Amino acid sequence: MQVARVVGNIWATRKHKNLSGSKLLLVRALESMTGKAVGDTQMAVDNKFGAGPGDTVLLLDEGSSARQIMNDKGAPVRLVVCGIVDSVCSEGREKKYH
Known about the structure:
Distance between the termini: 20 Å
Strand order of the largest sheet: 3-2-1-4-5
Number of strands: 7
Order of helices and strands: EEEEHEEE
Number of domains: 1
Largest sheet: 5 strands, antiparallel
CATH superfamily: EutN/Ccml
Structural class: mainly beta
Number of helices: 1
Mean pLDDT: 89
CATH class: Mainly Beta
Strand content: over 45%
Low-confidence stretches: none
CATH architecture: Beta Barrel
Radius of gyration: 14 Å
Shape: globular
């Protein structure tokens, strides 16, 4: 799992039938306690939380588990949003995201 910021949306006039009703988002991983962007921009699927640009999200990066979260064994998904992050606490420190 990783913390990431939603940096954009992807619109598709045609997409896999198992992704119908799901949002396609551009996300960039963050260092959870500093909020500093790390790594490349990736595409994630959100079918439950309604995340959008500017939101900080929790991502799951593993195909089988992602399909379980989506409750769809046939979905062509690897990276899925599994929550919107309000704050992260580690070793007595807290980083708030809004």
